[in-house]
User: Fold this.
Amino acid sequence: MLDDTIRAGEWVMLKLPSGNSKIFVLKADERVELGKFGSFDSNNLIGRHQLVPYEVVGDGNIRPVENLDYLQEFDLGDTEEDASNMTIVDDPTSQRLTHQEIEELKSQSLEGKVDHSAVIQKIVQNNAAFEKKTDFAKAKYIQRKQRKFAKIFTPIKPTTRLFCDFYLAKKPEKTREMRIDTLSQIMTFANVRAGSRFLVVDDASGLIVGAMLERMHEHGKIFALHDKETPNFDLVRMLNFSDEVMSVVSSLPWFHLHELPPFVAPSHPDALDRAQARRNQLERTRDDILAGAFDGLVVASRFDPKEILIKLEPLLAPSKPLVVYSPTKESLLEAYNHVRLSRRFVNTQLTESWLREYQVPVFNSGTHPTMMTSGSGGYLFTATTVVDDGVRIEKAGAAPPGTGGQTMGMAKKRKVAGSGSAKDEAANSGADSTDAGACTADSDVAQTVADAANVGNSTME
Amino acid sequence: MNSNRHPAIQYGDTVIAYVNPESMKPVEVAAGQTFQNRFGTFHHDDMIGLRFVHLLEPTPELWTLVLPHRTQILYQPDISLISSFLELQPGVNVIEAGTGSGSFSHSIARSIAPNGKLFTFEFHEERAAKAKLEFAQHGLSDIIVSQHRDVCKNGFGIFNSVTAIFLDLPSPWEALENAKAAFDPQRVGRICCFSPCIEQVQRTCETLKALGFYDIRMFECLVRPYEVQRIESEKLPLAGPTPKGSHKAFKRQSAGADAVASSPSSVLTSKPKESVRGHTSFLTFAVLLPTPPSDGAAPHPTAASADAAQ
Assistant:
């Protein structure tokens, strides 16, 4: 954190020209294998900056890549229909090097006897069709060869943003298909900040907890509920947090929320001390959670969100955010409805995240959206807690007469609060159950009030 | 909006008077003052215990929805994505230009507190003054350094010291050279340019590339809001004609409507809202790579540093 230096003993991700990545703990005095992209001595990377592309040179040395241009991502879809492409035909004989010669070059490159850029250059020079290509097609061709032969890697210190991209592509179930725009919205909606105290249900391998730690560091507390004896927060340990930051997180299994099992003392005295310490920690965590008054609740869980909310909602302080994520909309609807009808929440919103990346105009290649993209970023529902005025609706869609839902109740009260004129009544009856129809009544009230409020700017709408 | 909050509303606090998601208003609680909305007039002195409005603690997200607009502002989806790409977190030093209505400034301050600094610049004198006053009222003066200054003409006056820069300017490319000089050369620098038009993006990208910025990426980020309703799923009228006017029974009812909710054939539905925000701006991101450490650790110091394109 707040540092771009690669260190021994820390997790690091190496991005390879093929688009694949390798994530591991970098140890000193080690040979790091990159498969067909060669290998290097770990000591040559330790102490250097992240995000800089390095090329493997000679026997295990590395150096920063000089020409970054061809490394930049751009769309490989056939988008460019230049007239000069007319003369290009798909001809396997256009490469004058034989398969054997290329294999020979490759193995020499791997042994560090020839430079990988010399290999690519040779392949390009021996392609009879290369000169006929457009600039764009040339760049594409070279990039394809780079992906095959370049002994280049980019070390990256893991972040939750990196995990979003990585797992969405490789193993989406690990992060509950979370996309970066959605994760970042969770963080802002939940008002995650240093000094806060959060309750979290994270079944996304620790992605949520990790993202919160990135924004809180050692300031604050995070309490996480999980379904096994110990939480699966794989991703958190890969973020290289200090012990101080890690101490922000406490966790409790769901099955200990209602009550703890009786303490069984082990017979051996050493074991007793350890068991007692664990027990004390468990009791402290449970007491802290049940003490409530949390600054926010964030849920990204495999379990029913409505059940989770009914259990945890009383633990939130007033005027605090609730954020629930799911990759599917349907699994949120019952919970959403419950919250909407609850007198404990206002400002209930359900949104789907939408993100579109563009190819940018830096390669003479035009500006357009990328040809392939992620179809959905999943769904968020958010709300804000308020002080419960005592009228609680326990079950969604079963509101007893007179208590109504949030908007229904307000429509009724509006009649009482308004001037009671015929115009007002008409406005209300025509407004069905949404809030939008109240404008007429609104201006009516505004006129009846003599002393205009001296706040903010003009009127409500 | 800073972290030293009181548990209860006090005089001098800013609160958000909430009626529904489309109707909210900021109120600064002051003795003897009143606040008025469709339900009548409320005295600040009895702001606790109201039934028709809720008074919410302001967060940067709520503030974005209610703040007095002096300019086009940034909204939550963009703010969120930019904060992630710029890796805003406690202790980060950030530059923002221009300040505008201060929508994003509040969010940045929240993310970098307690030990980060936001240097925000606004070339419009009155706007700069208003924003400065607002930051003070919200207890953010320790984190936000607000300046009236034209950064395209006069630069930022900041060198070698930040890791994140956000430019919301009509011609961001004019500020890029100065922005580059403001980055800490020993850190990865991250920049975001926020422009509504594609022509601006093109000039920005070309300038970024010419100045040696790397990993230039561009996004559009929106959300699609949904309406949730419980509706009646009607049975086929096989026994006879449907009663007159019964087609109106299909009209959508609120999710909580009693009659529909109690019916076994009701179904909870969702559909995207009819009219939504379709475009805010294009977000152009780029990275400025650090210069290699000067301690000789690099066996082959080369031009891969930020100076490559100069």
User: Anything to note?
Assistant: Chain A touches chain B through 109 residues (CB under 8 Å). The two ends of chain A are 44 Å apart (CA to CA).
